[in-house]
Design brief:
alpha/beta; globular; binds 2-phosphoglycolic acid
């Protein structure tokens, strides 16, 4: 049985004061029905870790090198020092605006794992690819590119987030059927690469305009083990409603 995994993604939102207020409002409400967490800006990681007893804290990115001349970047060791155990990798906004490739994401995932962290690896097709019927080939290629060379036991423990780019922040969520079918295909690609045990263990999230009023429908699907939630993860009340929806 795969434990549900629900993470918010604050993106470039919240000061330290706002982050603290969020944790004060949400942390005590967290249940053991799922792994609940939030991916937060680098500047608020320390505050979030300090104010968390139950809610997991993830970084939204990291570099694959341990240190060096990479202005503006943060390493796994730096995240570890703060007590951060989760990291979102290859979010479509990183791919789109910062030119991250499957190869970069693959290196980052390996380094995160080496450092004892759990990566949440994001995949998903653009609107153009969706309309051209390329979802399957694009997503399979992303999964194999991002997970290439990783150890099967490590893949069992990581998380893959399927987020169709056309559904992110647009209010246009993928139908439950599309989300389920593509998550099943992600699992199938993991099966091809690492075998059935790994495919059955790996947790797959859907992301893209998930809200308190639609999360239950997604979660009822066989291959959807969780959600990565942007907009609806920013407010205390809406995050609490999401927690309440996971029974
Ligand atoms: P959204 O963002 O829920 O606001 O669509 C999802 C994401 O980008 O992770």
């Amino acid at each position: 049985m795969r434990k549900p995994i629900i993470f918010g993604n604050w993106k470039m939102n919240k000061t330290n004061a706002e982050a603290k207020a969020f944790f004060e409002g949400v942390d005590a409400h967290v249940t053991d029905k799922a792994d609940f967490g939030v991916a937060v800006p680098f500047t608020t990681l320390g505050t979030c870790v300090d104010n968390s007893t139950k809610l997991h804290v993830a970084a939204q990115n990291m570099h694959f090198e341990a240190n060096g001349a990479y202005t503006g970047e943060i390493s796994a060791g730096m995240l570890n020092e703060l007590g951060v155990k989760w990291v979102v990798l290859g979010h479509s906004e990183r791919r789109q605006y910062f030119n991250e490739t499957d190869k970069d994401i693959n290196k980052k995932a390996a380094v995160a794992i080496e450092n004892g962290m759990i990566p949440i690896v994001c995949v998903g097709e653009t609107l153009y690819e969706f309309e051209a019927d390329k979802t399957e080939s694009v997503v399979r290629k992303q999964v194999s590119g991002c997970l290439s060379g990783l150890n099967a036991d490590d893949v069992k423990n990581l998380v893959i987030a399927y987020e169709p780019v056309w559904a992110i922040g647009t209010g246009k969520s993928a139908t439950v059927e599309i989300a389920q079918n593509t998550c099943a295909l992600v699992r199938d690609e993991v099966r091809n690469l690492f075998g059935n045990d790994v495919a059955e263990a790996v947790r797959i999230q859907y992301g893209g305009s998930v809200k308190p009023n639609n999360i239950e429908e997604y979660m009822s699907q066989a291959d959807i083990d969780g959600a990565l939630i942007g907009g609806a993860s920013l407010e205390v009340d809406s995050f609490k409603e999401i927690i309440d929806a996971i029974k």
